[in-house]
Design a protein that fits this description.
Elements (H helix, E strand, L loop, with lengths): L8 E6 L15 E6 L2 E7 L3 H7 L9 E3 L5 H4 L2 H10 L6 E5 L3 H11 L1 H11 L8 E5 L3 E6 L2 E7 L9 E6 L4 E4 L8 H5 L5 E7 L4 H8 L5 H9 L3 H11 L3 E8 L8 H8 L6 E4 L4 E3 L6
Parallel strand pairs: 3-4, 4-5, 5-6, 10-11, 11-12, 12-13
Antiparallel strand pairs: 1-2, 1-14, 2-3, 7-8, 8-9, 9-10
Bound molecules: zinc ion (2 copies).
Length: 293
């Protein structure tokens, strides 16, 4: 796929909720946001590197990465992404903005790959990877301004984590909100007021019982976590309606790989609460602002 000059869009690279993949499943969470001439990676679940390349992104052009919270389905592949960008010719700095603790992951990743990194610096004349990556701790409020782009963060509700955030990327032509992983939180509607595109996480209520039966964990702790920490698709529709924005896209889908539940089940769950443009995310799906096709 190509990226044209002046394009603004979001590409959903990985759309399943949770870290496990199985035959037939989609990838854990990652997205690409192209806005104001910047190519921004939002979350780095397994598959993010391949997903970016499939979108036509040269990995050495990556300069800005956001991690919404420290669950592995959102940052497991951050190290491999940056290392692969480096082997693809990265020479300019990358800023990673994520919760406290993300830098520890990165330092440990560098240690785990020390033999390879030292070798490639010596043997191939590459710059030191450690010197190319800098970190900013993600906190609620205004995170960053860049040309005409403003990024703001809101703490969402995703227990037991505390440092877990929704993100809003606003510029004159495109205004996008990512809910992050969160329980149903009406405040997100205020945070997303008037946005062109709301990308919200979602669970399909009717499919959760069968999901638990398939996974077969010893007790009901996983089900309790899901109910406390994530949002039903119908409630995501309520948020979109209250926000009054243009387009709703669902990702971080739970479940994502049950052949008994498909797009129509998701649409049925959302439609009573949201009548606007709606996308049920699939890996590689691009969503443009409404005035552009
Ligand atoms: Zn997640
Ligand atoms: Zn999570």
């Amino acid at each position: 796929m190509k990226i044209l000059d002046n394009d603004n869009f979001v590409a959903l690279l990985g759309t399943k909720g949770g870290p496990a993949i199985r035959p037939g499943s989609t990838n854990p969470t990652s997205s690409l946001l192209v806005i104001d001439g910047l190519k921004i990676v939002v979350d780095c679940g397994l598959g993010v590197t391949r997903g970016l390349v499939n979108q036509g992104i040269g990995l050495k052009d990556i300069s800005l990465v956001f991690i919404t919270h420290l669950h592995s389905d959102h940052y497991l592949e951050l190290g491999p992404l940056l290392h692969t960008a480096w082997t693809a010719g990265l020479k300019t700095g990358v800023t990673v903005i994520g919760p406290k603790g993300i830098e520890d992951y990165w330092q440990a990743f560098l240690r785990s790959m020390k033999a390879d990194i030292d070798l490639r610096i010596d043997d191939e004349g590459r710059p030191d990877l450690a010197g190319l990556v800098s970190f900013q701790t993600l906190e609620a409020g205004e995170v960053r301004t860049d040309h005409s782009l403003t990024v703001t963060a809101m703490r969402n509700e995703h227990p037991p984590l505390v440092d877990t955030f929704a993100l809003r990327f606003s510029d004159s032509g495109f205004d996008v909100v990512f809910s992050g992983d969160t329980a149903y939180l009406p405040d997100i509607a205020d945070f997303a007021k008037g946005a062109d595109l709301l990308i919200h996480e979602a669970m399909l209520e009717s499919a959760l019982g069968p999901l638990m039966a398939r996974i077969g964990n010893a007790d009901d702790r996983l089900m309790k976590h899901l109910l406390l920490s994530h949002t039903m698709a119908g409630d995501a529709g309520k948020i979109a309606t209250a926000a009054g924005g243009g387009v709703l896209a669902l990702h971080h889908l739970i479940p994502s790989d049950d052949p008994d539940y498909g797009e129509n089940d998701w649409l049925e769950a959302v439609r009573p609460n949201w009548q606007g443009e709606l996308h049920i995310g699939t890996d590689g799906m691009r969503i443009y602002p409404k005035n552009k096709t």
